[in-house]
Design brief:
Shape: globular
Structural class: alpha+beta
Number of helices: 3
Helix content: 10-25%
Largest sheet: 5 strands, mixed, barrel
Number of domains: 1
Radius of gyration: 17 Å
Oligomer: single chain
Length: about 140
Amino acid sequence: MKRSVLVLGMLIAAVAFAAETLTVDKLLKDRETLDGKDVVVSGTVSEYKQRESRLGNPYITFKLKGESKVANIYMRGKLEGNAAPKDGDTVEVNGVYRKEKKVNENFTTKDEIDASKSDTDAKKKYGVKVTKRKAE
């Protein structure tokens, strides 16, 4: 009996501490606190692009729009078929937020969520999930 109560308590605690889905506006309001942290953010896709680097590696960029603020999304790899969002779709992005990231001497991004799959921790569920398609 004590064991089942302990297991139940642990499950309740795990659910309570599960990642809260943030809005883009809430994320950027708390940018100092959330810098470098894992986040789950919901918003509307804008300027969705799938590209290849000079070395031939596929990647995705897009803007994630909130009510009044916009975050930048980056993800290595590509999304195909129904997994690929389109402009106007609502998505959830799971990744690491950085208020500023220096890519090289000539390029710095601000307010970026890196949704790339983790090479070091397979348990992390980074990525982009379409939650609502734009009405056609």
